[in-house]
Amino acid sequence: MHNQHKKICLLGSTGSIGTSAIACIRRFPDLFSLAALAAHSRVDECIAQAKEFGVTKLCFGDPPSAHKARTILGAEYTILEGVAGLEQLAAETDYDILLNSLVGAVGLRPTIAAAKRGKRIALANKESLVIGGELITSLVRTHKAELIPVDSEHSAIFQCMAGEDGENIESIVLTASGGPFRDTPIEKFASITRADALNHPTWKMGNKITIDSATLMNKGFEVIEAHHLFCLPYKNLRVWIHPQSIIHSLVEFHDGAMIAQMGVPDMEIPIQYALTYPDRRPCPTPRLNLPNLVPLTFADPDFTRFPCLKLALEAGEASGTAPVVLNAANEIAVELFLAEKISFLTIADVIKFSLDKIPVLPITSLEVIEETDAKTRELVRATFG
After folding, report:
1. I need a surface site. Which of 48, 200, 203, 324 has the fewest CB within 10 A?
2. pLDDT tens digits, residue range 32-86?
3. Which pLDDT does position 200 carry in this prediction?
4. Given this model, what pLDDT does residue 378 score?
5. 3-state secondary structure of 11
6. Crossing angle for the helix pair 82-92 and 63-73, to the nearest 10 degrees
7. Which residues of the chain, if any, have pLDDT below 70?
């Protein structure tokens, strides 16, 4: 794949990762083209992308949006819909790289479909590894697929480990900005509003991931993801709060050396690296000027302030279907919070309730994952919704 033209199947094309990916593809027309696009419901934006890049195969997660697109586009376009459509897109389209930047458990089936075809998967959909990590990593090995992380933290770790023997790694540290509430007095957490939680200090992201960053659930997911990507036990994975978001993660080797990856907080860097790997290409992002920087600070996370992070680490350790319950309960809890039906503090209560209620099973198949996922969502909606 070195320096050859690569066709990309882009899932989540209208979100923040998707639009940054489109900027990378636009920058290198000799290297990349788009084979297919998927969005949830932003029909006009997705159609504009399709027309710009000559893409005739689209999928919309939301069926009414797919219907609207069919009405606008006519017969020369193939418009798929729903999770089945996403899976079909990944299973049947002619592409070299699947860039999966979907949000939530819907990302799992297309990731599996691409792994079975031995494709390169540029993964920004952390939930698919959280709930299906064992399944995906074994398929990647069996079918000689490639799994390249797009999350800034996992991309940082991946870059720090380039050319290193995995056996020399003692620990991995994932950094977290700490979100909007890292300094908020705990007694004020009960009155946190939707607007407060959506106001992230560093990154502009979609609503779900912004709430997950405020609860630090996002960091919990990333620890589970790192466990699967880099094959390290949970005791060797740590989180440090680093408000400046300049060091994206660190790898500590058993001789005591520590390697960190630094850069301005800009997702185009890890996205482009996942597409061009093992090459690096010029990127017009702002450069890091260390003398002009405020001091970089680090702190251990406070689990009383961020109970969701602790729940995620415990679910990761429990393994089996525990992370499936964690993810599904969190998805519905965040949905209920965004709909202003539960308070910010209740998000962690919903997740703890679900983990206590639903027994952990070993993951023997995709069906076990999907049944647990559905059961958890049903329980949360019936109890809290």
Report:
1. 48
2. 999 999 999 999 999 999 999 999 999 999 999 999 999 999 899 999 999 999 9
3. 78
4. 98
5. strand
6. 60
7. 1-3, 203
Q: CA quadruple 215, 216, 220, 222: dihedral positive or negative?
A: positive
Cα-Cα-Cα-Cα dihedral of 322, 217, 314, 383, to 10°?
-50
- Please report the DSSP string for 172-198 in residue order: EEEEE--GGGSSS-GGGGGG--HHHHT
Amino acid at 250: L
Q: Are strands 237-241 and 146-149 parallel, antiparallel or unpaired?
A: unpaired
Q: How far apart are CA 371 and CA 104, in angstroms?
A: 16
Residues 31, 175: Cα–Cα separation, whole Å: 32
Please name the residue that has the structure tokens 């380039």: 162
Between CA 19 and CA 21 the distance in angstroms is: 5
Per-residue burial over 277-298, b = 16 or more CB atoms within 10 Å of its CB, e = otherwise: beeeeebeeeeeeeeeeeeeee
How many CB atoms sit inside 10 A of residue 10's CB? 29
Q: Report pLDDT for 8.
A: 98
The answer to whether 122 and 97 are in contact (CB under 8 A) is: yes
> CA-to-CA distance for 60 and 264, rounded, in angstroms?
33
Does residue 86 contact residue 12 with C-beta atoms inside 8 Å? Answer: no
> What value does the CA radius of gyration of the chain take, rounded to a whole number of Å?
20
Q: Cite the DSSP H helix spans in the chain.
A: 16-27, 43-53, 63-73, 82-92, 108-116, 126-142, 152-160, 194-197, 207-215, 217-230, 268-276, 307-318, 322-338, 346-357, 366-384
The sign of the dihedral angle between the CA atoms of 355, 360, 362, 364 is negative
| Per-residue pLDDT, 3 | 66
Q: Under 8 Å CB-to-CB from 289, ≥6 apart: which residues?
A: none
Which 8-state DSSP code applies to residue 75? T
